[in-house]
Amino acid sequence: MTYFHPVAIIRQLVKDYTDLKKTIYLILTVIGFILPYYFVFKFYTASEMTASAALAQLVATDWGALFVADLTISVFAAWTFFYNEAKRLNMKYWWAYLIATMMVGLSFALPLFLYFRERQLEA
């Protein structure tokens, strides 16, 4: 009869769960990169719009303005989390996630940060 120590079983489950989380974060990072640019490309190829015209269209309705306000607050909350968590875990290049947010969006930067956070927690 083989005896398994409960602590060893828990450690293995946590390790497997961490690998699953990292895989999910990577998949979400790729989707979070592709999907926003798909819609940007679609918008700019459908019409010869400028960035200012796109922004004007975005906030033209109350629903659009609601999403802009909500996302803006979410971005600042995420940036605060990125900074504090990166400092707590001694993660390098915490500012890269701010740039990722500005260049692509929160849908890319947040899962990217969470992936590297998991890697740092494993180390």
Topology:
Blueprint lengths: L5 H41 L4 H8 L3 H27 L6 H9 L2 H17 L1
For the structure shown, list the relevant keywords.
123 residues, 0% strand
Report on this model:
- With 123 residues, the chain is mainly alpha-helical.
- The chain has one domain.
- Helices cover 83% and strands 0% of the residues.
- It is built from five helices and no strands.
What are the segments in which pLDDT stays under 50 over at least 5 consecutive residues?
A: none
Number of strands: 0
> What proportion strand?
under 5%
| Topology pattern, helix = H, strand = E | HHHHH
Shape: elongated
Short description:
The chain has helices at residues 6-46, 51-58, 62-88, 95-103, 106-122.
